[in-house]
Q: What sequence folds into this?
């Protein structure tokens, strides 16, 4: 059954809430292929003690493993926050078909670091979906940490 972008972003927000509950920066992701969620993940930097364990990287790794492929041109990644430059590079190399993100990240997002798109030329990009919800979760997380 075909779901809306908003539905998938709500699923990514649920993953971000799981990260929040675990003391991780609350960023969640779902990776969708053929109208089916094949990966659900969230940041696990603290758990894995790995600075590269961002939701996007974990989603790419799990999806490639599950699909037995190194490229994901038919996939859409829904992520609650604008990808950082590291994740943008990983998304570039995965040749992901589409990226939909929630809130922008003026401090660490790719848009603040590069003047042109860091994504594969064939990748479609959409930002701002459920941005306020994602931003509220991030603000609450960092407010609690102070």
A:
């Amino acid at each position: 059954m075909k779901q809306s972008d908003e539905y998938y972003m709500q699923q990514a927000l649920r993953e971000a809430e799981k990260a929040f509950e675990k003391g991780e920066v609350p960023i969640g992701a779902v990776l969708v292929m053929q109208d089916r969620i094949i990966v659900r993940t969230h940041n696990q930097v603290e758990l894995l003690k790995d600075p590269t364990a961002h939701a996007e990287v974990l989603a790419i790794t799990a999806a490639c493993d599950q699909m037995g492929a190194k490229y994901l041109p038919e996939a859409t990644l829904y992520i609650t926050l604008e990808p950082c430059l590291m994740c943008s590079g990983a998304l570039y190399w995965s040749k992901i078909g589409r990226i939909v993100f929630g809130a922008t990240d003026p401090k660490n997002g790719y848009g603040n670091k590069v003047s042109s798109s860091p994504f594969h030329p064939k990748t479609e990009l959409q930002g701002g979906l459920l941005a306020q919800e994602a931003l509220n979760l991030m603000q609450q997380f960092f407010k609690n940490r102070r």
Remarks:
- Strands lie at 28-33, 36-42, 75-81, 98-103, 124-127.
